[in-house]
Amino acid sequence: MNTETTASRFKFFTRAYYKVKRWLLTIFGDIKIFRWPFFVVYHPTSFKVKGKDTREIMSLLQPGDVVMRAYINYLDGYFIPTGSTRCSHSGVFIGDNTIVHSIAEGSISDDIIDFCRADRIVILRPVSGQEWAIEHARKCAANNVEYDFDFQPDSGRYYCHEFSASCYPGLDIKPLSRNVFWFFPSPVVFLADSFYINKNFQLIYEFKKS
Questions:
Q1: CA–CA separation, 81 and 87 (whole Å)
Q2: Would you put residue 154 in left (φ > 0), alpha (ψ -120 to 50) or beta?
Q3: Other beta carbons within 10 Å of 19
Q4: Given pLDDT bands bounded at 50, 70 and 90, which one contains residue 84?
Q5: Which residues, including other chains, have CB under 8 Å from residue 64's CB and lie 6 or more apart?
Q6: Superfamily of domain 47-207
Q7: Sign (positive or negative) of CA dihedral 44, 49, 54, 55
Q8: b/e map of 166-175 (b: 16 or more CB within 10 Å)?
Q9: 75: closest CA among 105, 31, 110?
C-alpha cells in the first residue's frame, strides 16, 4: 500500500469518525432521562424556567452579557463537564432580544426567549469589551461558523463555551478541567466555570430551581 493510498484512507476514516461523533452529540443533546420511574424522552418541551422567570431575565439583560443555561437529566449532561453552575451551554446577548451561540448547526442568532427554554439560567456581565464582543458575535452568526466537535483550540471552529470566550479575548478566560461521572477529569477546555469564577465577570442573575 503506497503512502498516498494510506493518507487517503486515513482522511476518509477521520471524516467518517467526525461525522459519527457530530451525529451522536447532536442526538444526545435532545434526550432526557427520568430516573424514577425510568423512562426516556426525545426533545422534551417542559422546562423549569417559566414565563415570569424569562420576563425577569429579559429585564436584566444588557448587550454583551454572557448567558449560560443548563438542562437537568439530559443525556449529554453526563458526558459534558459542567462544574459548579451545572451549565453546559453559553452564548452572548447582543441586544434586540437576540443571543448568538454555537450549536451543532454552527454559530447562530436566536431569540432570547427560545434560549431561555431551559432548567437553569445564569447571566454574567463582563467588566469591558462588550462592543467588540457584539461585533464578533454578529460576524460569527452571519458566517455560520462551524461547530468544533473535536474541541480543539484555534481550529477556525467553535464549541459553545469556546465561542463565548472568543468574544472576550482580553478578559483572561482560561480553559479548565472538571470531573465527568464524578471521578474522571475532562480535557482542559473552556467551560461554564471559565466565566463563573473569573473576576472579570459579575454575576447578575442565577436561576437554579431544583
A1: 9
A2: left
A3: 11
A4: confident
A5: 92, 93, 94, 125, 126, 129, 130, 131, 133, 134
A6: endopeptidase domain like (from Nostoc punctiforme) (3.90.1720.10)
A7: positive
A8: bbbeebebee
A9: 31
pLDDT digits (tens, 9 = 90+) for 102-113: 998 899 999 999
Q: What are phi and psi of 150, to 5 degrees?
A: -90, -10
Average pLDDT, the chain: 84
Whole-number pLDDT of residue 190: 95
Number of C-beta neighbours around residue 63 at 10 A: 15
Residue 36: how many other CB atoms lie within 10 Å: 5
More confident residue, 13 or 154: 154
Peptide bond into 37 cis (omega under 30): yes
In DSSP notation, 139-155 reads HHHHHTPPB-TT--TTS
In this structure, what C-alpha cell is assigned to residue 19? 461525522
Share of the chain above pLDDT 90, in %: 56
Q: Find how far residue 123's CA is from the centre of its chain.
A: 14
- Of 68-77, 148-157, 186-195, the least confident: 68-77
CA angle 2, 11, 187 (to 5 degrees): 130
Q: Which residue, among 51, 53, 94, 87, has the nearest Cα to 71 in the 3D structure?
A: 87
